[in-house]
User: Fold this.
Amino acid sequence: MGAILEIRELHKRFEPGPWVVDDVSFTVEAGSLMYVLGPSGSGKTTLLRLVAGFEAPDAGEIVKGGDVISAPGRVIAPEDRRIGMVFQDYALFPHLTVEANVRFGLDRPGFIPLALSMLPGLGALGRARRTGPRPNGWGSADPGRSLPELFELTRLSGLERRYPHELSGGQQQRVALARALARGPHLVLLDEPFSNLDTTLRRQIRDEMRDVLRSAGTTSLLVTHDQEEAINLADRIAVMEGGRLQQVGTPEEILHRPSNRFVASFVGPSDFIPGVVNGDLVETEVGANPLPPDLLALSGTKVDVQLRPDHFQLCENGQGTEARVIGREFQGASTVYALVLPSGTRVQAGLPGHLELAAGDLVRIRYRPPVLVCFPVRRADRP
Amino acid sequence: MRLSFKHQHRPPGMVLAGAGISVLMLLPLAYIAAYALRGGAADWARLWHTTLPGLLFNTLSLAAGTAAFTFALGVSLAWIVARFEFPGRRVWTWLLALPLGVPPYIMAYVWTDLFLPGGWAQVLWKSLAGPQAELPLPYGRYLPTVWVLGLATYPYVYLLVRASLGNHNMTFEEAAQIQGVSRLTRFLRVTLPLQRPAIMAGLFLVVLYVFSDFGLVSMMRFHTFTRAIYLELSGRGDRITAAMLALVLIGMSALLFWQERRARSRSRFYQTGGRFRRLSPLPVGRLGTLAIWGYLVFWFGAAFGLVVSYLAYRSVEGIRAGGLPAALWGYAFNSIFTSGAAATISVFLIVPVAYLATRYRDRLFQLYLRASYMGYVLPGPIIGVGVLFIAIHLLSPIYGTVAVVILAYLIRFLPEGLQAQEAAFHQIKPHLEEAARIEGDTFHRALLRVVFPLAKTGILTGWLLVFVSAMKELPATLLLRPLGFDTLAIRIWIETSEEFYALAAPAALVLIGVSAPLFGLLISRDLRRQVT
Assistant:
């Protein structure tokens, strides 16, 4: 399958501010789940709105299925893009039932009935269904699936007559998703779709949503600031910061071969300590590990090594490094301890919860990651 | 495929319409200023040495007296219905706002008639004190005018303070209580100061009304700016002096208006942060209930009950004597037709202004908004003057037709509808329109399918506000109406100024009968939102 969406050297700013989207290029493969990941203010939502057609780019272009849909001075209206969208607050129409919300894009009430429906007592006219030919150049292409199928898929059957305010947060989100899918869009955009949900529900709901998106067979472009969500759900991730694209890759690539320090530290909590390359190994205060294969460095090169809390191991007496406990934080089965190394460096290390270490205790540890992440020291980084 | 060339592309039709509406709203002011500037320094000096000081003194002292009266009355009534639990509390909450539905000049007419020979007050006094007794009353003009004006306008203060007390956070009172502060001190030091924004807003409305009132002061024969302007124009036909006086009054109103806006934006009391407990009314005993009912009945009677029953009595008397004048229904039709037309047109004119101002951060659209709010600071006689000038210079084909009257209503009352629509559009999240767009609707379709249905209540409220206000309008109608075109308000004016008091009663009753229920509808919707 080829790329369905291509973003080419896209630039956007809101005068007189700085670039909000600064020279961003990437492609989205048809049928895949693409995430744009970044902290708030990184320009990711603006990027999504550019793809939707709510904003016009200042330079660059957006190509969908071979057609340029956005370029400076040439922006195809949102309604003509064959794109669906799930808004962060879902934006369900509060005056319409679940069913009317979902079929909103399929119904084409005429202008005159609509105008008349404004008059008191004639509201029913505006809801008259005239499911005409696909409007606005969506052509007679595959209309997607039938509405009952869609309700089935999104588990909304039985809720058709309800109003949005009568639904739970998860149900509202499924209505928003069903509405976005109803017209059989080529691409579905989702803006922080899980940020309005309870943390306890989030994991279950997002797995459900991924299944719906997969079985609907659409291409999805999602935006989030939650690295855990992106790593777990995405086929590919584009990491953004300060309007610039930092890295595009699979979750594994982002996690194990981050292209820079920002990406490395954004995708998970971590500390950096100094290390030295010695042959095929990188030696640090907490043990030696193999040099990553894609990093070519001579012996004696100074590097910064990333320590993720998940990859620490306990050691027998006489092995590893002795560290002193100064604090702890419970995280499910394991406990993350704040430790001080002999050099005085502080690190976070996840250790089995049954140890019950207290502040002041000594513990022997070693760092053993699946793939070591390190960056050569730039002169600017350290004096 | 259609292209939208810039995103946030401003809908060109609306932008153009908004510009046209702004110009229309500013035209009366522009003409008044142009006329006033024809008066040279000598004219201004003459004005300063003759009428101006007296007018200023009269208008300002009337405003001060009325503000003091409405403050005491409005705050005490709001406090009683918010703070105490007694039988009928909910109904009273609603009833006490009802006098706002009575045109103030009708109140003036009834109260005047009550004290004329043969009026109820005189009859009552003579039956108590003997047939020869004279009613000892301050027959000066100031106190009676303040009395009637206060009865007509106290609901502004009452409604706003009542709403503010509905949002009052009990925690503040409890904090004061735990400091060992007594109940009365608590009221004076905590509760009342917290209602200050609402009280000030209410008093501003009262004073703004006093500046603009024409009918009431004229019937009470109290000489203020509006009356002077009207007399210059209708009596002497001196347009330049009328425009000069109008400019002074507009200046006073505008000053007040911007002061109020500034005060409101500066003093925002956030009463509802985090935990929030409403004021729970205190139960009162039998004696307390009696006292409360006595107080409420007295003031409601003075402002509404007495007025309506007196009108009913006079009407019955009139019908017995000679039957209802058949023309009455014609007057009612004229009132309803012109007001309905103005309200309906206003809805369409408001949409672009309100929509643009709430959707786009654009200086131009804020200017549209301000221009459209101009009617608030243009009292009726001034609108009359301004529209008269427009009709003479720009729209001579419609001069002397009903269209001029409707135009005046539009300019004067459009702000009331605008306020309702602006609030309604504000509450609709822009995301909803974007959702409609991405679902395939064009800009206009999204308006019709999402924005308007959601703003329907606000739009309807705006229509009602304009309609009710236009029904009561007197001075602009007087100045602009075609010969022989009588509305209910005009009939009341004519009959009373020729001292056929009984003849005015049926028209007044019909006018209240049409506008008070609509007004009651408006406030009950408002109160339901804010009262437990």
